[in-house]
What does this fold into?
Amino acid sequence: MSDKHVSPVRSMTGQGHANAVGDLGSVQVEIRTVNSRGFKCVPRLSDILLPHENQVEALVRNRVHRGTVHLSVTFKRPAAEDVPSINSSAMDTYLSAIQQLRERNPSLDAQVDLALLFTLPGVLNTVAIDRSDHEPRWAFVQGVILEAIDHLDTMRTIEGQRMSESLEVDCGQIGQNLEVIRNTSPRSVEVYRQRLQGKIERTLEEHGVQVGPTDLLREVQIYADRVDIHEEIVRLGSHLKMFSSVLRGEDQSSQPTGRKLDFILQEMFRETNTIGSKASDAEISAHVVEIKCAIERMRELVQNLE
It folds into this structure.
């Protein structure tokens, strides 16, 4: 089976099963994935498949890029390949013991029943025929493993799509709050100017002192520079667009989607924090809180994405 196209966003958790019966034997595969920061494969293979352990891990790594993978592969040979063999050493031991018994008891004249002798422990061994050519067996097992991974990906893609829809909703809410902050920011400077001017005029009136408009403008400008959040708003908007781009699969990076989305969220949270600390406007602060809540919800989901 070949690797098929899947949704750019997949959950890290899921499970898949597959089995097949052929001329070489029967194979049963069970694969289960759980959350993990990196990739780890924990295979449990039948003894006959142990020489293929590195191939199994490479196969899984090519399809699963993040998370801990628990993989169980059971292989059974065809019954016709299990043929009995006579353990000559065990047979000789039993016959020697019978001969010694006769020598100690000459009156014994029992005949040796070979059919019963074969039923004694260790006389017959079941020895599996080993094929010198392992490639046909690996090709057979590989196909079943890939089928199980396909089923795993189907489950992870469905769950990832649900997460993606929730993340898109939060992106929209962040965008709406950011737009309000963008429109409110210039007004906050003007509100401060009016408030500062009113305080100065009352203070000067009390003391009978006058101050030129230039000094007042200089103070307002200093404040405007200190609370200017234009750059942070632009960067947060840029990060938000990048997040949506990665979420929709428009980004062609080979890096796991979940890891990249997590990094973008860290940058978004940093810019939001700066906006909240620089802006001393109550309305802006309220929208900053809403953005932070949305980012936290998104972060919890992203931690579960591959």
Observations:
- Confidence is low (pLDDT under 50) at residues 1-7.
- Residues 82-128 form one domain.
- The radius of gyration is 37 Å.
- The helical segments are 53-63, 88-104, 114-117, 135-207, 213-226, 230-247, 257-278, 282-302.
